[in-house]
Amino acid sequence: MPKRFKRRVAPALAALLLLAACMTPALPPGPPAVQANRAAPGSPIDTLTNTPAVLLWGEVHDNAAQHALRRDALARLLARGARPVLLMEHFDREQQPTIDRLLAAAEPPTAQALIDAAGGPGWSWPLISPLLDLALQHRLPIVAANVARTDTRRIIREGLAPLGFDASVPADLLAAQTTLIEASHCGLLPAGLAPRMALAQVARDQFMAQQLQHALTRSIASAVSPATSAVPPRVLLLAGNGHVRSDIGVPRWLGAATRVQTLSVGLLEDRGDESRSFDRAITTAAQPRPDPCAAMQAPAPPR
Q: Which of 77, 92, 289, 295 matches a 20 to 30 Å C-alpha distance to 233?
């Protein structure tokens, strides 16, 4: 890579290392209407609300239509009596004490108050706020489901084991994650960096799986009656599509007993064959956005 080009892309790569969470490349526009996968009969909302004990909802983080769809689905879940524990990729685990303090207040906080206190940069908070406000109004427990960025940077340098994660990563999973990261970074990562970044993605998936299992166990233990315990889902994970993929995401790190109670739903932008990577897949129109690779791939201006 020419030196001038390296200087041009280095700041962008540094930002991606800090902010990348789901490692999905930009995609061409999808169909204008929301369509359910043929494997999931009924409307998209029915697909999201007809679920077992654990529901994993994917998203393309900047897609406004998908955030609105999930907010509508959550409203329907609440209307039928479900009160799930809400796990959110959007909050880092180091923010859990702040979240707990705000949720314990006599009056529930607004989404904006929670975001101001515990939210970090890199998220489309205005799109997330309506769903978050709904969850807060109904006093749903909220669990930070992401690994802190300081930890992921250490994992990239040192690996999984020093931070207590499972270093026995199946070869097919690591290879698939590495390929996705290389694609989402426009093929511009320095040699050897993508596999180390893949380990950070694996750490996030492992942590989400751990938090999910803990939340499910607590929900079962605290059920006050058979009636309340029978209304699914008990646990709802909101995360990027890469995390909820059944082939390489959080479901790969769940125990067998939990996995059979789990439904992963990808909210995609005309992803084609990728829909097979989820238990259910819903396609929405693509959010208009510039090509993230264009500026990085453009030749450096003459000096």
A: 92
